Amino acid sequence: MSSLPYPSKQSSASDHRLNYQSTSLRYNQEIKATLEVKTVVPPPSSRGGGEGAATDHNGVFLTWEDLWVTVSNGKKGSKSILQGLTGYAQPGELLAIMGPSGCGKSTLLDTLAGRLGSSTRQTGDILINGHKQRLAYGTSAYVTQDETLITTLTVKEAVYYSAQLQLPDSMSRAEKKERAEVTIREMGLQDAMNTRIGGWGSKGLSGGQKRRVSICIEILTHPKLLFLDEPTSGLDSAASYYVMSRIVRFDRKDENRRTVIASIHQPSGEVFQLFDSLCLLSAGKVVYFGPASQANEFFALNGFPCPTLQNPSDHFLKTINKDFETDPEQGLEDEITAEVAINTLTKAYKSSDHYQQVKRLVTEICEK
After folding, report:
1. Which of 8, 223, 283, 337 would you call most buried, defined as having the most Cβ atoms within 10 angstroms of its Cβ?
2. DSSP secondary structure string, 120-175?
């Protein structure tokens, strides 16, 4: 029996073999199960193209048009979760999906990633590089909000074992090991390589470090399309910024040209500045889709300017959140209710240059 790639100190040979066998077997089983769940195959569309096509060297252009998602609501019929959404994501850019709780962020992310449950019904077109096609294994990845790491492994072991399982047999063990170590360094975890992941009752990595390990495991195959579900959930502002800045830095390398789509709840001002594009949802409708840097101007032009020195994302979410528009202590309602604000902004977006630009870009991408 060969030894662990990264053996722990102070262990006898027999203990070492037993630990290796039990840990390796359990890890292989869990990773294989995880990979079966996480394989992302965007759903087929009614337009063009053939299945099984690979992505080109320019990366993945993902578009969706008139996207509706409904779920059965028992005797009451069905409920619309997403209502007529149109948008796109392109290589080398980070698209952030934002909105209050229950607005449809995770549903949109799961729809684009082909992860909707059988109880939901989806209509509309989702296209990859303008065609209906399936991404080859390893071309896309999905980082879930919940951690699925084995707490007894070190960072090195977790990423290296994943490399052994995910990377093709055409790569040697040495090449897989090098890919794992390079990925760890790119996510800024080189100083924690030999630290156990840890969990309840055992010391280990911080929340931000664990999130980066999860991302490491998913990007080992150098996916062209990366989905992130609440990557900053549970992290403080400093850890959130570090995680997102690492993702952005990795995306924008010329050789990678990765397309990244992330659902995110309430980013700090620094994190918000990292976004290239913003999809702002409320009650399943698009309030704004366009460059993140122009969202402030859009809100101001339509009567909802962001106060000086306030985080723009906080202002956007406060404006379109219907849950807290009544003051429970004073019994007073805001002069302009969130319902009015949402209707105003939704109508303004539909008649704006931003919406026309989105439709134009979707058409251009589909015609390439």
Report:
1. 223
2. EEEEEEEEETTB--PPPTTSEEEE-SS----TTSBHHHHHHHHHHHHS-TTS-HHH
- Domain spans of the chain, in order of start: 62-139+224-323+335-367, 149-222
Q: How many CB atoms lie within 10 A of CB 298?
A: 22
- Can you give the pLDDT at residue 267? 93
For position 256, what pLDDT does the model report?
65
Q: Quick one: which of 252, 254, 300, 257 has its CA closest to 274?
A: 252
Token digits of residue 294: 């122009």
Question: Using CA atoms, how far apart are residues 8 and 15, in angstroms rounded to an integer?
Answer: 11
Measured CA to CA, the distance from residue 256 to residue 141 in angstroms comes to: 14
* Distance in angstroms (rounded) separating the CA atoms of residues 166 and 141: 12
Asked whether the CA dihedral 128, 131, 132, 136 is positive or negative, the reply is negative
Question: Which residues touch 29 (CB under 8 Å, ≥6 apart)?
Answer: none
Predicted structure pTM score? 0.80
- CA distance from start to end of the chain: 53
CATH topology of domain 62-139+224-323+335-367: Rossmann fold (3.40.50)
Summarised one tens digit per residue, pLDDT across range 242-271 is: 889 988 887 776 566 899 999 998 899 999
Instruction: Spell out where the chain has E strands.
Output: 62-72, 78-89, 94-98, 120-128, 140-143, 225-229, 259-263, 277-282, 285-291, 326-327, 332-333
Q: Is 366 helix (H, G, I), strand (E, B) or coil?
A: helix
pLDDT of residue 46: 34
Dist. CA 146–CA 229, nearest whole Å: 9
pLDDT of residue 341: 92
Rounded CA gap, 138 and 135, in Å? 8
Question: What value does the CA radius of gyration of the chain take, rounded to a whole number of Å?
Answer: 22
pLDDT at 146: 80
Residues in the chain predicted with pLDDT less than 70, given as ranges, are 1-58, 135-138, 253-256, 324-335
Q: 338-350 and 312-319 are packed helices; what angle lies between their axes, rounded to 10 degrees?
A: 110
**What's the CA gap between 110 and 124, in Å, rounded?**
15
Place of tokens 């969130």: 338
